Amino acid sequence: MRHTLLFLCLFSLFISSCTKREKDYVRVGFAFDTVCSVQIFTKGNEKEANVILDQIFEKLNQLEFIFSPTLKESELSKFNEAPTDVSVKLSDELYYVVKENLKVAKETNGAFNPFLGKVTKLWRPLWQNTSESEGHPSLPTEADIAGALQRVDYQSIVLQDRTAKKIKDVELDLGASAKGYATDCIKDILLKAGIKRAIIDLGGNIAVLNKKENGDLWKVGIKMPIVHSQGRVAGYLETCDRAVVTSGNYERFVEVEGKLYHHIISGKTGKPVDNELRAVTIVSPNALLADILSTSCFVLGKKEGQKLLKQFPSTFAIFFFKDASVIEVNGEAEHFNIIDNSLRKVKEK
Ligand code: FAD
Ligand code: MG
Question: Which uninterrupted H or E stretch holds 296?
Fold first, then answer.
């Protein structure tokens, strides 16, 4: 009788732990010059969730001290200050991200260029407070841009055995990929901590872990890719275990005399890319790759962007054009559902 009772007690304990629903815990903070939020779903208690969230935000802080283009003491800034022809030992993290960046720089013939730092630093003070020209520093001069463009060759770097050597006076800017890498780091922390479900949002670099507890896919909304979108949602996709990363011309920009100057730069002109695109969203299991490809496709434009994506057949992409048309690339398994009816989907052959 005693054994039966003990068994029943243990059995009901087992059943209640199986049926206990997950709770969500959210932390919002500021890092990488943007608002970051992480929402985790767990059967653990608040204290346990907070330990994990603390760890994540500590990691973001640590990454800021590696990748920040504006902190003088970041590893990236110190590398930029280092003299040419001197080998500098890099952290594993900076070395890895630079290496991955260079693969795509080569693939895109420098259209994606992590060594545009000399040019982007001319523009960054203008982007920092978006939208109003009043009180902003003036636009860079043609001479400044021309001078900076002399020093942006991504082949001016030798990477070997965790060291990097500049052979010309170029500067790194990993703004196009560091948030993606940070997203992958957060995913690793969550998985190691046994968290199966989460939503990560690093200033528009979104990633979802697993499916919802009821087995449904997550619905990830994509903002209208227009200036002052005021909460308008372009549409959504239903997905799991994916990063959803968008690059566009409508978030980080400055308006001077009625003209918008956004933050994705052509290495040919040293000025904001001006093509048929408003934005490109990339959906991939790898957030670093998604971040690199979204910027790359934005710079390359429709034709060359699609060509690049042929090499990444499992990477789904959505191109948003200025004429309000939308195309899907590699969309065999996933698709984008339009909500805002000013947009229209166009089939691509
Ligand atoms: P993405 O499309 O992913 O990237 C665009 C960014 O990539 C540009 O802003 C530029 O940095 C770079 N870029 C532009 N053209 C090209 C190109 N052709 N090829 C490759 N890269 C290109 N910004 C601030 O203003 N102040 C800060 O204090 C600041 N701190 C930061 C700290 C960290 C750790 C990081 C990673 C970024 C920080 N930034 C800061 C922002 C950064 O410079 C970019 O503006 C931001 O990362 C853009 O991300 P995105 O997803 O909007 O656009
Ligand atoms: Mg990017």
Answer: helix 287-309
Q: Which residues of 286-310 are buried (b: 16+ CB within 10 A; e: fewer)?
A: bbbbbbbbbbbbbbbbbebbbebbe
Give the residue from 270, 205, 213 showing the smallest Cα distance to 242. Answer: 205
Name residues whose C-beta falls within 8 Å of residue 75's C-beta, 6 or more positions apart in sequence. Answer: 65, 66, 67, 90, 91, 94
| CB of 116 sitting under 6 A from ligand 1 | yes
Instruction: Please work out whether the CB of residue 32 comes within 6 Å of at least one atom of ligand 1.
Output: yes
Alpha-carbon span 99 to 95, nearest angstrom: 6
Closest ligand to residue 284's CA: 2
Going by alpha carbons, the residue nearest to atom 1 of ligand 1 is 176
For residue 173 and ligand 1, the question of a CB distance below 6 A is answered with yes
Is 176 touching ligand 1 by the criterion CB < 6 Å?
yes
Q: What is the pTM of this model?
A: 0.93
* Cβ(263)–Cβ(130) below 8 Å: no
Using the mean position of ligand 1's atoms as its centre, give its distance from the Cα of residue 124 in Å. 9
State which ligand 1 atom lies nearest to the alpha carbon of 71: 28
Tell me how far apart the alpha carbons of residues 219 and 237 are, in angstroms, rounded to a whole number.
Answer: 6
Residue 3's pLDDT is: 52
Closest CA to 108 of 326, 301, 324: 301
pLDDT per residue, tens digit, the chain (349 aa), is: 445 444 444 444 444 455 689 999 999 999 999 999 999 999 999 999 999 999 999 999 999 999 999 999 999 999 999 999 999 999 999 999 999 999 999 999 999 999 999 999 999 988 875 545 456 678 999 999 999 999 999 999 999 999 999 999 999 999 999 999 999 999 999 999 999 999 999 998 999 999 999 999 999 999 999 998 888 999 999 999 999 999 999 888 898 888 899 999 999 999 999 999 999 999 999 999 999 999 999 999 999 999 999 999 989 999 999 999 999 999 888 899 999 999 999 987 5
Question: 5 CA distance to ligand 1 centroid (A)?
Answer: 63
Query: Which amino acid is located at 156 in the chain?
Result: S
